[in-house]
Design a protein that fits this description.
Length: about 220
Amino acid sequence: MRNNAPSKHVRIVLADDHDLVRSGIKALLSMIEGVEVIAEARDGNELIALVDDLDPDIVMTDISMPGMDGIAAIAEIHARKPGTRMLVLSMYDTVDFVKRAVASGACGYLMKDAPPFELEQAVRSVMATGSYFSPAIAQRLLQPSEPTVDDELTNRQVEILKLIAQGRASKEIAYQLGLSPKTVDVHRARIMERLRLNDIASLTLYAVRKGLIKP
């Protein structure tokens, strides 16, 4: 990697639920002069807690994680600490994912299969200009896109859809979200109506395609 020292020491909190992936990214980041991974998280809730405690310069996070996912965590961190730069490092390259991440507060988006030098380029760019989008992502953003999940569903409906797609029953969802089973059933019916889908299998496929759950 290039050895151009940044103007300040860059402190990064890294989030990914796969230990090997996270270790590999951390190793690459440690090769960049002036950059330090100060903490690691396996899910969105842990990430938020670390950011609250450590106030890093950059949050680098995956999107699909158990519990609270990266998009929800980005939105929460942005609300609490709007000055924190957040860079998504993901395997998903659809316009839907990128737009959802940016709308939630992300300032950059990098693919996991990017060459190692691009990781340094992303960190430098985010610190210097406040944003970075890999060439492949930038090109996709210029293409017409289908409606995002946030265009089609409310936040509560997205939350319930994710749990339905994970195989949770109405009673389980109701207990977790503090709702009545009847309310959950009403939401499920409205979700199906909005998406024009008729069964749980179709809802699950939709959730996978939109990156709400892992395949």
